[in-house]
Write a structure and sequence with these properties.
single chain; 147 residues; mainly alpha
Length: 147
């Protein structure tokens, strides 16, 4: 599945939220959907069933932490959750590497590349939020983007 094919099938209620502007969020959500198939394959092999569980938990936390951070009202709070997302992405990358014995090489390479993109984005997002430490109040329109 390509990103554009996947994106076209994301419910409008999600795409209309200002959070959707965050590339790290979109990529994290995409990786989470992709991992469903990967985890299903890993769970069938007794040697990698534990990897499947850990991988799915790590991947699921990426977009969730970006979303939670985006919803915080200070740069310091946002940065903390973006760091959590970065940590979860690094954890997922580690589990994908360990899954390379079961998953196809091109699948693993693609997932590692996506994780790398998300890590780079969250590093930038975290640094920016710490540097600016902007405060938002409810009703403020977010003019943030991680592109």
């Amino acid at each position: 599945m390509t990103f554009s094919d996947w994106e076209a099938n994301v419910p409008e209620v999600i795409r209309c939220d200002s959070l959707w502007k965050m590339e790290a969020y979109r990529l994290g959500l995409f990786l989470s959907d992709l991992s469903w198939h990967d985890v299903s394959k890993l769970a069938k092999d007794g040697r990698t069933s534990g990897i499947a569980d850990q991988l799915y938990r790590a991947v699921g936390k990426i977009s969730s932490n970006v979303g939670e951070g985006y919803s915080r009202n200070t740069g310091k709070d946002r940065a903390r959750f973006y760091e959590y997302a970065m940590g979860s992405t690094r954890e997922a990358r580690d589990w994908y590497f360990k899954a390379r014995h079961v998953l196809e090489p091109e699948v693993v390479a693609h997932r590692l590349d996506l994780a790398g993109q998300i890590i780079r984005l969250t590093i930038t997002m975290t640094a920016r939020e710490r540097r600016l430490n902007r405060k938002f109040t409810e009703g403020d329109e977010r003019k943030m983007s991680d592109d």
